[in-house]
Amino acid sequence: MSAPDPTGQPLLVIIDPVARRADGESVRIARDVLCAGAAAKICLTDGPEDVSRALSRRNRRPVVIGDDRALLRVVGLLHRRRELAESALSVVPVGAPHTVALAHALGVPRGPVAAARAVLDGAPHPLDLLVDDSDAVVLGEVCVPDGYVPGASPYAAGDGADGGRHPDGGPEVPGDPVGPVEPGEPAVPRRQALTAGGHQSWWSPAARTARTALALLTGPAARHALPSCTRLRVEADGVLLADLDQPVERVTVSVVNGLAEVVVHHRSADRPVRARARAVTVSGPDFRYRADEVGAGPVRSRTWTVRPEAWRLTLPR
């Protein structure tokens, strides 16, 4: 029989499908540690709908086994339901190092055993949150425009926290490997790209090669090689930090001690402009940005507002 959870609340363990594919052994270890230390309900999810249904279970403490995007998806769902403050979240990071960097930066231990033990023996810590004017949440940092991010995840250029992505760049289709998908192109599993006779269409390899070449020319690696400079208007609590006649290379927004810290890198200035505020607005010609390694836009204006201590994460005592 499982030992009681120290909080007196059973666990709802949500296992992300990307984690199962990326490192099934770490997932198994984390699951075994959690089940040995608490009453736990295991949910093997295949997409955002499964996660949403799982979170409908009451009186269970959510635990995410997965990468940063899996954690972001759960935080975003609970925020939109206005249930984020109801219980502390826990996460066992599983994935390549750059896909779990945010969880570790928040204080979650490395390794499935240490992280699972922190879930069982740790304590909830209140954390601040950035929420934009489209009601999307940010746990880490916003970068405008969508430029170079060291170690960016190959499947992080999605259109939001709820859009599951396969590691090769296409949307997740449970049970079906998919190839790279162009914007606006429906996701078609490879096994469906067959003729009625069961043979692969002659154009399929060429089409995949063309799509791969296009992805290389327009993807993160190509963007990293291009100079990032655009015209933006940046305001912090109404105070103007940059205007359209002052080209900027990069703008970052993050939370520091309950306030949003905005850093504006001007093209012609030796040092960036820094400010802290409750709300930061970036506007200008259509621009893209990245929030927690997720690409978004284009938009003409976006405002990020700090919600102090809006959520709780279980961390080591």
Average pLDDT, to the nearest integer?
A: 78
Structural class: alpha+beta
Low-confidence stretches: 1-6, 152-228
State the separation between the terminal residues, measured CA to CA.
Answer: 26 Å
The portion of residues assigned to helices is: 10-25%
Using the CA coordinates, give the radius of gyration.
21 Å
Protein name: Diacylglycerol kinase
Biased composition (Low complexity): 170-185
Region (Disordered): 154-188
What is the element layout, followed by pairings?
Blueprint: E1 11-15, H1 17-22, H2 24-37, E2 40-44, H3 48-54, E3 61-66, H4 68-80, E4 90-93, H5 101-105, H6 112-121, E5 123-132, E6 137-138, E7 141-144, H7 204-218, H8 220-225, E8 233-236, E9 239-242, E10 248-256, E11 259-266, E12 273-277, E13 279-291, E14 294-315
Region (Disordered): 154-188
Biased composition (Low complexity): 170-185
Protein name: Diacylglycerol kinase
